[in-house]
Amino acid sequence: MSTRSDEFATVTWKERLSFGGGDLATNIAWGALATYVAFFYTNVIGAAASAVGTIVLIARLFDGVVDVGMGAIVDRTSTRWGKARPWVLWAAAPFAIALILVFTVPGMEPTPTLVYITITYALMNIALSAAVIPYGTLNTRMTRDFTERSRLNVTRMFGATLGSLVVTVLTLPLVSALGDDQRAWIITFCLFGALAAVLFFITFRNTRERIVDTAPPQDQPGIVESLKLAVRNRYWLLLFAIFIVFSVAESLYTGATAYFAQYFLGNAGFAALMSFMLYIPALLGMLFMQSVYNRFGKIAPMIVGAAVFVAGSLIIAIDPTDMALAVTGSILRGIGRIPIFGAIWGMLPDTIEYGEWKNGRRLEGVLYSAGSMGQKLGYGLGAAALGWVMGAAGYNGLNHTQPDSALSAINALFVYVPMALFVLLIVLFWAYRLERIYPKVEKELAERRTAAGEGSLSLGESDRK
């Protein structure tokens, strides 16, 4: 059983790497949904781009509600394994099965096909919620130490980047090697699904929850009360907006990559090269980001990173048909997203601590759901915009050539809109000031816990001002 002295214990490398494996598993699915699912539905199955966009948006909006509910369930869970770990285990098999079903579309008429796509895509998002919300909450349950949590987050983001790299770089070559038909897609995602399930089991097996709960699960507030407390947390709301904007941008340029490669660079297979150039800098950069955060904090590197991403987009815009410019721009985009991707999830535990300091209640599951909910909402809006704009521009995935209007839409969705959204991110990062007061938050929370002993926390005078 954990004690309060354990709450600030150092997390071992084995445990840290096992924790990072969970996000490797998660991003096998995220990478597939973000980069290839629209291309698969339109160019392999033959579904209309506008219909795909609508399906994705509806599924993601519904799943945003599921995220909040899942967060409340985690907050009320109490087992010998803890609050979060058991859900990581229980979600592993459904997660793998749902991923396989997304890419297993039986030959049917258009309407039944769209119904099947809607159901399986929604199931995949529900499975993501069941795995991601508890997994994310696990970070806040493993340690209270600010530096240790930051190290866990960097390890997690390394795993996430590796997962995205694996699925985006290997999918099309595997599909091609296995016959370049739907059967090949099914086999490919059977392999990815099995890998994800194994990684989730390793995360469950080798991690430990150390945080001592100050109240029994039945004393946790309900969903409505939790949301009321959440909206009083200004930095949680701001971070929620950051997640949405960042995810819309990521959804657009990753979702448009295969289309951009096919129609501007002449071969859809070049999407793997561009993804490689995007994720390799991020993978290597994650090894050094903790030192950067220790010296400069999180916000300043994130602002610089967003500016570098904008510069990379401008390079691609010079001549979208030039492979050298596309690769160079992709590398800069990859470098630019390193400090953002490496810090954004680690900022959520900070907002949980701030909420506890401000309101006297620690809502790990519900507040952490902001990340997943914002990410899914952002990806849903981005994917919907991708489908709607391309559909309105006259895109048809079964045609070998596309009208100029469709090509202009692809270029805008891949280059210009993400660039504008990263400019907006710079503004949002500048407005995020929690980093400046966090030492005070951490100090006062520690004093309260020491004073309270085994009792409940009480609000101080500074919180009521």
Mean pLDDT: 84
User: Span between N and C termini?
Assistant: 37 Å
Task: Specify Rg, calculated over alpha carbons.
Answer: 22 Å
Query: Could you give a short account of the major beta sheet?
Result: none
In terms of structural class, how would the helical and strand content be classed? mainly alpha
β-strand number: 0
CATH class: Mainly Alpha
Q: In percent, how much strand structure appears in the residues?
A: under 5%
Task: Give the count of structural domains.
Answer: 1
Structure description:
- The protein is mainly alpha-helical.
- It is built from 17 helices and no strands.
- The C terminus is likely disordered.
- It is a multi-pass membrane protein.
- This is MFS transporter.
- Keywords: Cell membrane, Membrane, Transmembrane, Transmembrane helix, Transport.
Key features?
465 residues, mainly alpha, Growth Hormone, Chain: A, 17 helices, disordered C terminus
Task: Describe this structure in a few short sentences.
It is found in: Cell membrane. The protein is built from 17 helices and no strands.
Write the layout of secondary structure elements.
Elements: H1 13-35, H2 37-45, H3 49-76, H4 85-102, H5 110-142, H6 146-177, H7 182-206, H8 223-231, H9 234-255, H10 257-264, H11 270-296, H12 299-318, H13 323-359, H14 364-392, H15 404-431, H16 434-452, H17 461-464
Helix pairs in contact: 1-5, 1-6, 1-7, 1-9, 3-5, 3-14, 4-5, 4-7, 5-14, 6-7, 6-11, 6-13, 9-13, 9-14, 9-15, 10-11, 10-15, 11-13, 12-13, 12-15, 13-14, 13-16, 14-15
